[in-house]
Design the sequence.
């Protein structure tokens, strides 16, 4: 026993060291956004393409209310209920005190300015593919919005999921930066891929997940159970969605389906965002969805 205990202690120390290394927050280089000039007008397009207001504004917000990013919406899941934070320019309760690099680290690395891991309810696994210029422009636009002094609420997450450091292990397993669709792309479908896979983070809802919450990318966009337990999120691959590209683009613009129905539920907010993009971007998204591998 006297010979075994030191070996066990050494193994434990090595294991702890490996865990600490694997789970350490991974930040961008300090000069990652140096030299990039902001374009506020383009930042507004990035804002709508990224769906920021769909989570961070009030659930029933319309018009200018969608620009009041006080947070507070609740998102239930198998791991607890996540509550969207205040991302308005308020310096105390929002992100008014953040630098552009802080926002880039949050969006592409899932790391807070204090160095803590964010929960992947914040879709940084998709935003990881966002162009840093777009994030620079987005930050400039966010800074023009009204500051809202509402404090962010704490997530309703219990043990062991409330151990933030362990999220580094989740990222190690599932934060797989890289494109899902890599072959047969045209300039239009490449733009559509960027809008769907990165900014629009469509896969975060429309792709099934494994038991630990990682996206099953082999079943990309093939639908998933609704995290709140009510119904399912539809399959939007050509294996189920048989609309033409023109029909899809028209739906994104107006909310009307080819069957003379109209958009509802959470998708209504998404369509409202997409309606503010250019016709070319909506067509690019539709073209991309038509080349995604069909899943029945």
Sequence:
């Amino acid at each position: 026993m006297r010979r075994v205990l030191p070996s066990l202690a050494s193994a434990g120390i090595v294991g702890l060291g490996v865990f600490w290394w694997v789970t350490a927050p991974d930040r961008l280089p300090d000069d990652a956004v140096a030299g990039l000039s902001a374009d506020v007008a383009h930042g507004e397009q990035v804002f709508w393409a990224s769906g920021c207001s769909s989570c961070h504004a009030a659930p029933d917000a319309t018009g200018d209310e969608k620009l009041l990013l006080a947070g507070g919406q609740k998102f239930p899941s198998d791991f607890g209920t996540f509550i969207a934070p205040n991302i308005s320019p308020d310096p105390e309760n929002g992100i008014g005190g953040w630098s552009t690099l802080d926002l880039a680290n949050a969006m592409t690395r899932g790391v807070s300015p204090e160095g803590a891991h964010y929960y992947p309810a914040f879709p940084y696994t998709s935003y990881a593919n966002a162009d840093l210029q777009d994030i620079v422009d987005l930050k400039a636009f966010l800074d023009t919005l009204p500051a809202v002094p509402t404090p962010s609420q704490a997530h309703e997450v219990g043990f062991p999921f409330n151990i933030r450091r362990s999220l580094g292990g989740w990222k190690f397993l599932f934060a797989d930066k890289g494109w899902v669709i890599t072959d047969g792309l045209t300039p239009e479908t490449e733009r559509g891929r960027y809008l769907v896979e990165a900014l629009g983070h469509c896969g975060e809802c429309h792709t099934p997940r494994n038991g630990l919450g990682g996206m099953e990318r082999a079943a990309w966009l093939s639908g998933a159970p609704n995290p709140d337990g009510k119904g399912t999120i539809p399959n939007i691959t050509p294996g189920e969605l048989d609309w033409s590209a023109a029909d899809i683009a028209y739906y994104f613009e107006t909310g009307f389906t080819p069957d003379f129905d109209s958009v509802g539920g959470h998708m209504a907010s998404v369509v409202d965002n997409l309606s503010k993009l250019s016709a070319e971007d909506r067509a690019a998204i539709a073209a991309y969805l038509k080349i995604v591998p069909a899943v029945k």
